[in-house]
Task: inverse folding
């Protein structure tokens, strides 16, 4: 009898320990997460997804009915924007709306990206003030701990449209790095959405914004032309008219370039126009078609029922606004019926001796099969998804057209492109002619000299010669020679003002008092050809800095080298 009793005790203890192991395993096993792979966003099942949805606003409280109506349009996600007014220390009651409203979307099966609308007190922002930064991080700590185990949370977006006077991309990047490090301690694997400075236009996706974290989604907002999208009803402006689809495509092009250069996912977090604008339906359809053409993820601004607003005099979509509701229904139906889509974009050039790799990514239901035609001898396709090879000196010159094709029972989509193997032109330039003036108006000439490049940080001393360091100006003139045939971005980084012309085209016009700020402009140049260039610089006190840089798809951002600059009249 004692042996039987002991045997039962052994079984009972073993059962209890097994139960504890199962419980612990269940408690600690992380739920599947979204993640980034190259330019793709992968769902919790590991398959590529395309995000299409709407912004939702805390000041227009959403309901389960709203969530159902959004889902009925075949949208799959919501960018949920909540408000918070900093007070010096985190106040949990300030984000009670998140607790109330966010589950309305997740429980309906929509994916959600939470973001805070703004975070400013007394014209200070978290990157200015450590107390604000602590409150900001405490706020996100609370939200992440509360919702991180919900698999419907797609990503965290720390801040909507980060803007303040004087904010530049290097400062914003440094701030993002601090915030991301904090979030990663709480939620190591979920994607994080970042966007450029100011009002997050596509051109703010600058090289300096590229972060080391591989699980980042890069976002931009699209309200171009602002004069049209935000027009007043008493001064109507029509689309198309002075603007057309090409205007919109040009505005979105920097986001395309950023994805091609860095192989990252791009998400248009906001786009929309007042629905009373003449031709608003055409604007919406044109923007949607461009976003779809490039395989971008998007959330329209915005889903909301605003009973105080006239039915056709706001940005909002809802079932009562029949016009825009039908347009967005068409946008989403067209997107669903388009068949497979190729999401990736190839790098368009590679230097001789450098390894070229292009992994083709596509989505659709069912997942499409991939094939490639027209490859030059130095490239090979692995039969699955990757094109790779290394060109030699004998491959310099343009290849023929390459065709990547994604096919499934739902249809077929092609991507046609060329890969250049350029031979960069290394010039024999000696620099630009610099004329130095003793006033801020490019008058009172003091001296002239040959400057090998425009790369000066005089700090508080000023240039040599009889010049008052607090009040002077400079004009550099000559020619610039392109190394490759492609679009170049020219940058002026100055403290204070700057103006820049290339080939007579004004690229920068910031003749103002300011701290060290960077401005840019783009222009297409042909390899080996020389173009007139003129840069003017203004110094009104404090630090004194003047730099001229460039970049292109094949050229990393750098000071324009001496070899490509020739003195003369710009």
Result:
């Amino acid at each position: 009898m004692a042996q039987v009793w002991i045997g039962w005790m052994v079984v009972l203890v073993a059962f209890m320990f097994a139960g504890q192991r199962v419980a612990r395993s269940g408690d600690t096993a992380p739920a599947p997460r979204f993640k980034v792979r190259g330019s793709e966003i992968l769902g919790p099942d590991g398959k590529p997804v395309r995000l299409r949805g709407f912004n939702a606003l805390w000041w227009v409280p959403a309901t389960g009915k709203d969530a159902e109506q959004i889902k009925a349009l075949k949208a799959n996600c919501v960018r949920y924007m909540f408000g918070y007014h900093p007070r010096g220390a985190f106040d949990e009651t300030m984000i009670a709306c998140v607790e109330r409203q966010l589950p309305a979307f997740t429980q309906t099966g929509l994916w959600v990206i939470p973001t805070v609308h703004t975070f400013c007190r007394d014209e200070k922002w978290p990157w200015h003030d450590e107390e604000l930064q602590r409150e900001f991080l405490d706020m996100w700590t609370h939200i992440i701990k509360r919702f991180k185990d919900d698999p419907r949370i797609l990503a965290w977006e720390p801040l909507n449209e980060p803007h303040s006077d004087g904010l530049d991309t290097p400062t914003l990047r440094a701030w993002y790095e601090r915030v991301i490090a904090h979030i990663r301690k709480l939620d190591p694997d979920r994607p994080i959405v970042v966007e450029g400075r100011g009002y997050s236009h596509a051109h703010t996706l600058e090289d300096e914004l590229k972060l080391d974290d591989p699980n980042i989604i890069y976002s931009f907002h699209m309200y171009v032309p602002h004069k049209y999208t935000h027009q007043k009803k008493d001064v109507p402006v029509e689309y198309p008219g002075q603007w057309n689809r090409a205007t919109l495509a040009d505005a979105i092009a920097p986001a395309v370039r950023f994805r091609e250069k860095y192989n990252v996912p791009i998400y248009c977090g906001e786009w929309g126009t007042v629905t009373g604008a003449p031709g608003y339906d055409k604007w919406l359809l044109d923007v949607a078609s461009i976003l779809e053409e490039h395989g971008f993820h998007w959330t329209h601004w915005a889903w909301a029922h605003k009973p105080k607003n006239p039915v056709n005099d706001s940005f909002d979509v809802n079932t009562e606004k029949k016009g825009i509701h039908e347009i967005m229904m068409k946008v989403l139906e067209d997107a669903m019926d388009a068949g497979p889509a190729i999401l990736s974009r190839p790098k368009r050039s590679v230097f001789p001796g450098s390894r070229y790799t292009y992994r083709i990514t596509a989505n659709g239901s069912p997942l499409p099969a991939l094939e490639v035609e027209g490859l030059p001898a130095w490239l090979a396709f692995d039969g699955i998804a990757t094109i790779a090879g290394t060109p030699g000196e004998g491959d310099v010159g343009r290849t023929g057209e390459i065709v990547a094709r994604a096919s499934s029972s739902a249809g077929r989509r092609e991507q046609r492109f060329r890969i250049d193997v350029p031979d960069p032109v290394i010039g024999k330039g000696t620099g630009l002619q610099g004329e130095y003036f003793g006033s801020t108006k490019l008058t009172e000439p003091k001296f002239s000299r040959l400057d090998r490049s425009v790369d000066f940080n005089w700090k508080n001393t000023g240039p040599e010669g009889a010049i008052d360091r607090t009040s002077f100006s400079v004009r550099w003139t000559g020619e610039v020679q392109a190394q490759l045939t492609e679009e170049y971005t020219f940058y002026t980084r100055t403290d204070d003002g700057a103006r820049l012309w290339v080939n007579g085209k004004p690229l920068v016009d910031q003749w103002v008092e300011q701290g060290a700020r960077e401005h840019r402009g783009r222009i297409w140049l042909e390899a080996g050809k020389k173009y007139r260039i003129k840069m003017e610089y203004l110094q009104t006190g404090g630090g004194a800095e003047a730099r001229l840089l460039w970049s292109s798809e094949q050229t990393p951002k750098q000071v324009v080298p001496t070899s490509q600059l020739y003195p003369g009249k710009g």
